[in-house]
Design brief:
862 residues; alpha/beta; four-stranded antiparallel beta sheet; 32 helices; 24 strands; globular
């Protein structure tokens, strides 16, 4: 057998016969003949043919030779139908290669480019790949992931025993590290990975930080000399580990890390909270700080409850206060001006406590989606609210400036007003103060948390930030030798260990926008490891999102991730030291920050040992688990967002040259195996709003598995949220979808159920409640009109990229594509445009809207 094969670019690479078998198996599946043993037999025949032809010539076969041999072998063995599927696949792969070259502005695609579907590459090209002053791309995905992986690994080097000691006590022994021309010109590398100027800047910054903490045992000159001599080359393995995780799409950090690491801004955190006190100086200082954060690509949350209400007397001026809403509008305008360094539009979370005198005005401030377009808003229900709600006693409204009760309100009327507005325009969300602080490790020392990041999943104190990353759990559903799906728990455990270390490193290597944020963030060291691809994984394993088996899997999954992240954080504490806030937390008492710890009957792991180990060794991170909306990174990974169910099985996109259908990949593969895949199916699902629930010819088992966001009852959305929340330290960003005909009482019952089940906050989205909703499930045309013209519709042609797990794409045969001028991805518009009810030309960016959900978090893209 040949040991090597020649690629299209002339590169000689190892020959892998398994790839031939896999390609044949996929062609068999596409023809309704999925038989692994048959694929193996045909694969062996292909290899014999190659050896017979090229062995005599004593030359290596090319990729084209191999594909020709597959075609001939299939035809000669009576598999003409399969050969046709393979030939079509081969043609479409050529189209995809050409399209990827155009997106990346390069003459060839490499192995990393092949790992990502075209839509993912568009996102990378639009927002992450480095560009020159003219806007030309000067970086490809491979080098993007190398610069991020290398930047993150630098933190681990500073914990190397050759230069680090947890308690060196040599304060002032070393001169500060300085950036100079000599350092800039010096060639430094970690094994094969060479540092750029921004990596070197990070070395200077981290050395000074570690030395100020009395951790460094060598001078900066000695440190650089050691690096130059290869003393840290062993960390090449860690760089490769991070790089492989990102390029294989099993784990991705949040947007700021992808955009900024190894780049000018250097900031890795996505989520920030700033405090606002009741003075003009505080308000304007916070405004300025927020602008700085936006420039680097972060989002900010604020609680405006400390500002006196509108009309309150101002002693210093003799005038009256304009109230918190007026300052929110000021912040909104500022956000419009700052474009987050060209990475993404600014994002804010505005929170007001339920006992603030302006609470009713706040609840209605986004009525009809007409204002505060750069804000998500939420009401923080105070810890005593439910006592008044249950007793029906008047609920006191308190002036924060004086601390005096100024009015009373019926608590049920207040709650009803909140619920109605959420039904009408998807906001405000609700934060439950008591649930949010029930397992807050710093409550006794720092007081209650009253603010979240813009999407509500990270509970933070003023000046805290948190860096996030998500594991694509779909990538751990394996099919071995054509067998049924198996979940790779061992592989997931290894990835959790790697990802936890990665995020802890981000806390050290990140360049913070403000010194106050750096100090507070490193004091509590919160990291946010979450998951994405849950909806796809459930499809793959034939588990209904809204069934007991699905809910049980989700809970088991999150307990697994939380457990291994905690064990890893303990191991990091042993080597690197516990978080500085450890003595000011309940960790020292062996308490853990999630509800599952109190429910011993549900344990699948020895959490008692985890608790004991934390008391003995400490823990590295104040939080380890958070679940973010993963707007952009799930598009890069080609999976469903966060813990969301798949929004629609089929999207129809209409453009001037014809119609395109985007199909969920797991659904597509299943329908091919069932022999149901075809034009009629795609169009029927599209007309049925992306669902198969009403299609009589779909097998009942498949109907039960392939439920979409709007097939799922609101209460089941909440049960899924609660299953994850039980094992999450912080909180969760999830859109709890409601059909357009949902009632106000449906929303109310969902909020009450969420509170009852221990959720920390909740957001609902009723279909159509945001004016001008851009992406909708299914077809863009009126159903009756489409049914009337069904006979005239042209057939569909597949354009899918089999290399990745991305959505299958089908076009009408009449669609004309010339010179790659047609954008083959659906129009992705910014979530801002969704809220505004229209799309401006400069909003056509890959933002918070993706194939798997109309609006994940209306402003965040992590």
């Amino acid at each position: 057998m040949f040991r090597f094969i020649v690629k299209r670019n002339g590169q000689k690479v190892p020959f892998d016969s398994a790839k031939i078998v896999d390609a044949i198996f996929k062609a068999l599946q596409a023809s309704g003949e999925g038989d692994w043993s048959k694929a193996e037999t045909l694969g062996a025949a292909v290899i014999q043919r190659l050896e017979a032809v090229h062995g005599k010539k004593k030359e290596l076969p090319t990729v084209e030779d191999m594909q020709d041999a597959v075609e001939s072998t299939l035809i000669e063995n009576g598999f003409a139908k399969v050969a046709k599927a393979y030939i079509l696949y081969r043609q479409h792969r050529a189209e995809v290669r050409t399209e990827k070259q155009q997106v990346l502005q390069k003459n060839d695609v490499d192995d990393v480019d092949k790992q990502f579907d075209t839509n993912a590459l568009r996102v990378l090209a639009s927002r992450y790949l480095r560009k020159d002053d003219t806007g030309k791309i000067i970086e490809d995905p491979k080098h993007l992931f190398i610069r991020v992986a290398l930047h993150t690994t630098l933190a681990s080097i500073f914990y190397d025993p050759k230069v680090f000691a947890k308690n060196s006590k040599k304060k002032g022994a070393h001169a500060p590290a300085l950036w100079d021309a000599k350092l800039a010109a010096k060639k430094l590398a970690v094994g094969q990975y060479e540092l750029n100027e921004f990596h070197k800047e990070a070395l200077v910054r981290m050395y000074n930080t570690f030395d100020a903490q009395e951790k460094m045992t060598v001078s900066f000159a000695e440190f650089i000399s050691m690096m130059g001599k290869g003393a840290f080359d062993a960390y090449e393995k860690e760089v490769t580990e991070y790089y492989s995780a990102m390029t294989s799409r099993t784990f991705l950090p949040n947007t700021p890390a992808l955009a900024n690491f190894g780049n000018v801004f250097g900031m890795g955190s996505a989520c920030f909270v700033l405090g606002i006190d009741d003075s003009i100086s505080s308000i304007m200082e916070t405004l300025s700080s927020a602008a700085t954060i936006f420039q680097s690509g972060g989002g900010v949350g604020y609680n405006f409850s400390h500002l006196r209400p509108e009309g309150d007397f101002v002693r210093t001026t003799g005038g009256v206060a304009s109230g918190p809403l007026s300052f929110m509008r000021l912040y909104d305008t500022m956000t419009d001006v700052i474009k987050q360094g060209g990475i993404r539009r600014g994002a804010n979370m505005g929170i007001l406590n339920s006992n603030h005198p302006d609470i009713l005005k706040f609840i209605k401030v986004k009525e009809g989606n007409k204002g505060l377009h750069n804000f998500n808003i939420s009401v923080l229900l105070t810890e005593d609210f439910w006592d008044y709600y249950k007793s029906k006693k008047p609920y006191p409204l308190i002036n924060p400036h004086t601390g005096k009760v100024v009015d009373y309100i019926d608590p049920r009327a207040l709650f009803d007003a909140l619920v109605y507005q959420a039904w009408e325009s998807a906001e405000p969300g609700v934060i439950f103060a008591d649930r949010s602080n029930e397992f807050n490790p710093f409550y006794k020392h720092l007081g209650p948390i009253e603010t979240t990041n813009p999407c509500g999943e990270v509970l933070l104190y003023p000046n805290e930030s948190c860096n996030l990353g998500s594991i694509n759990v779909w990538s751990f559903v394996k099919h071995r030798n054509g067998s049924g799906p198996v979940f790779d728990w061992d592989g997931l455990a290894q990835t959790v260990v790697m990802a936890t270390r990665f995020l802890d490193n981000v806390t050290d290597v990140s360049k913070y926008p403000l010194p106050e944020i750096e100090k507070m963030t490193r004091y509590t060291r919160k990291i946010g490891l979450g998951v994405m691809g849950v909806g796809d994984a459930l499809y793959e394993m034939e588990l209904p999102y809204n069934g007991k088996a699905g809910i049980d899997f989700m809970e088991q999954l999150m307990e697994f991730v939380n457990y291994h992240s905690k064990v890893t954080s303990i191991e990091l504490a042993k080597k690197r030291g516990s978080l500085p806030a450890y003595k000011d937390s309940f960790y020292k008492d062996g308490i853990l920050p999630f509800a599952g710890y109190a429910d011993k009957k549900s344990w699948h792991f020895d959490w008692k040992k985890v608790s004991d180990d934390i008391k003995k060794y400490g823990i590295r991170n104040g939080y380890t688990t958070v679940i973010a909306p993963t707007g952009s990174i799930s598009m890069i990974a080609g999976c469903s967002s966060g813990i969301e169910p798949v929004y629609s099985l089929v999207f129809e996109k209409r453009v001037a040259v014809g119609n395109f259908y985007y199909v969920d990949p797991v659904f597509e593969a299943r329908m091919q195996r069932e022999g149901l895949m075809g034009d009629d199916l795609l169009k029927d699902v599209s007309r049925s709003h992306g669902s198969v629930a009403s299609l009589s010819y779909i097998p009942p088992k498949d109907k039960k598995t392939f439920v979409t966001a709007h097939d799922i009852m609101p209460k089941d959305h909440i049960h899924a949220l609660a299953a994850f929340q039980k094992w999450v330290d912080s909180s969760i960003s999830k859109t709890n979808n409601f059909p357009a005909d949902a009632t106000v009482d449906d929303v109310k019952n969902a909020y009450l159920l969420a509170y009852e089940l221990g959720c920390k906050d909740v957001t609902v989205y009723r279909d159509g409640s945001i004016a001008g909703q851009v992406l909708v499930s299914g077809s863009q045309d009126d159903t009756a009109k489409k049914q009337k013209t069904k006979e005239k519709e042209p057939p569909l042609v597949s354009l899918k990229d089999e290399k990745t797990k991305g959505m299958g794409v089908y076009k009408e045969a009449s669609a004309n594509i010339q010179d790659g001028s047609l954008d083959m991805s659906p129009t992705l518009v910014s979530s801002q445009a969704v809220i505004e009810g229209g799309v401006k030309e400069d909003d056509r960016t890959e933002d918070g809207v993706d194939f798997n959900g109309a609006v994940k978090c209306k402003l965040c893209n992590l």
